[in-house]
Design brief:
It is a single chain. By secondary structure, this protein is of the alpha+beta class. The protein has one domain. The chain has a 4-stranded mixed sheet. Strands 1-3-7 form a 3-stranded antiparallel sheet. The protein starts with a strand and ends with a strand. The model has no long low-confidence stretch (mean pLDDT about 90).
């Protein structure tokens, strides 16, 4: 399976970086099945970046959590991760809380909207995908293929 990672540089050797803010599935190396989504990640700040392509080879010995769609379990998992709670998975895959969904998640976490209101707002958003690698062992499932410069065409 081919996965994509959008970045400001070519990333031949992926690594897990601890960032200022917790992400949907906690700290990890994030990829997607959707090249257009990775291009948005790569170009979001100044209109240029790199689309990195990897061959992903699943490993049955890794602890993998897959969320096929946005569910109550998915929402609770994201809220927990965004609150800074780690997990024991090597890899987590599922829908992404994009900028708009993130705002809804944050409003839910802050008690500004109810769970029901979150789902009402979230149901009209376009499908997204993310797969995150959380351990060094998980990163061995990725093999770098290539990186190409991309530009935001909007």
């Amino acid at each position: 399976m081919i996965l994509y990672h959008g970045s400001k540089k070519i990333v031949e050797s992926p690594e897990i970086r601890i960032a200022k803010y917790n992400k949907d599935f906690y700290f990890g190396f994030y990829c997607t099945l959707l090249p257009e989504q990775a291009i948005r990640w790569a170009t979001r700040f100044d209109g240029t970046g790199y689309l990195n392509e990897y061959l992903y080879t699943p490993n049955e010995h890794l602890n993998v959590k897959i969320f096929p769609e946005m569910t109550e379990e998915w929402l609770d998992f994201i809220v927990s991760c965004r609150l800074g709670h780690s997990h024991t998975y090597d890899i987590v895959e599922g829908p992404m809380a994009d900028d708009t969904i993130f705002n809804y998640v944050q409003n839910f976490v802050d008690g500004k909207i109810s769970r029901a209101a979150f789902w009402e707002l979230a149901k009209f958003k376009r499908p997204t995908h993310q797969i995150s690698f959380h351990t060094a062992r998980a990163l061995t499932a990725l093999s770098f293929v290539k990186g190409v410069e991309v530009r935001d065409e909007e």
